[in-house]
Amino acid sequence: MKTYQLEYHRLIAILFLFLSKGVWAQTLTLQQSIELASKNNYLLKISSLETESEQLLIKTTKELAKTNLDIQLGRTQAAYTNDYTLGLVQQFSHPKLYQAQADLQKSRVVASQRNEVLQKNELTGNIKQVYYQLFYYQQLREILSQQDSIYRSTLQIALARHKTGETNSLEKISAEIRLQEINNRLSVLAKDEESAYQHFKLLLNNSQDFKLDFNIPLRRDTSAITNTLSLTNNPLLSVFEQQTIISQQQIHVEKQKLKPDFRLGIINQSIEHNFNQMVLSAGIGLPIFTQAQKARVEVAKVNERIADSNRKQIELRLNTQLNMLKMAYQKHRNSLRYYENFALPQADLMMKNAIKSYQSGEIEYVELIQINQQVWQLKDSYFSTVLDFNQTIIQIETLLGIE
């Protein structure tokens, strides 16, 4: 019984050790990766805290000046007795100024929220791009592995022919060089994959190892971008539009500062030892010397024109970028149609017949290599075009603010 319990506890300890070291790595889909990054990414956390900070500042927009408390003690009323004067005065700005400041700060909160959306949109776009880059590497590794199998088979045939004296050593050496070339490309590809994988981990802000689920179509779905190609929801443009609104409200705030201030007070005093003599006071601060404040209004107007010019420049740049991406999308789509409808089926058929002909001795090794190189270049170009197509779709989605 004790032996059984020892074995049981040992098994539990080993299982815990395996889990703590991440032996069973989590498998993530693209959507799960985006959700994990949205939860963990430090830039998004910073943006969220900035929004919280701006929201708290709304409470400061109706802050009153410090209350003045004055006291006088002495012979203020008569020469033969001491009296006191106690004054309490509160100064405040025009009510419309407080409201204008509150509206301005609320607009800053909206700007911070829009910046938060921008950060998330850019993060999502980066995750999708690296994800499809890794997907491309997987496809490339598969066709390189196919090439490796082909050259291993041809090497065996070349060795057999060399032993029987049918060919010289040139065919064998050529097959060995081709095989080493494929192995080198696989080695380089492994490094590229590891680099992209580390980049992906950084975006997720996740130190644990994981696997990616690539059970997706080779080409990214385009329905999201074909339904709308408007920049209405572009997060960057939205940020600049809000900056224009903020600059307009800043003008309003500066104008409200030209309005008068007000004071209210109460005075309690004694007159020849007759205590609690109450006096109410009120005053108004007239904006007589307004040159400096009017200059601030003009500065705010200039800043509003600057913000509007920046918005127009960003809108022009984004529209140009969108038009260029549309043309790239059409170019890659047409190329994929060529590959999928004509080139790839013909290449597969050509390669299949070439291998049979080589194995039966109908064609020489050189002819087989030439055909194989053509097929390899076609497939390599095809998967490279698929990557360009997918990355273009992702860039358009990011530009349109589509997750």
Automatic annotation (TrEMBL):
Q: What is the lineage of its organism?
A: Bacteria, Pseudomonadati, Bacteroidota, Cytophagia, Cytophagales
Taxonomy, superkingdom: Bacteria
Write out the coiled-coil annotation as residue ranges: none
One MF annotation (Gene Ontology) recorded for this entry: efflux transmembrane transporter activity
Official protein name in the record? TolC family protein
What is the native source organism of this protein? Answer: Emticicia agri
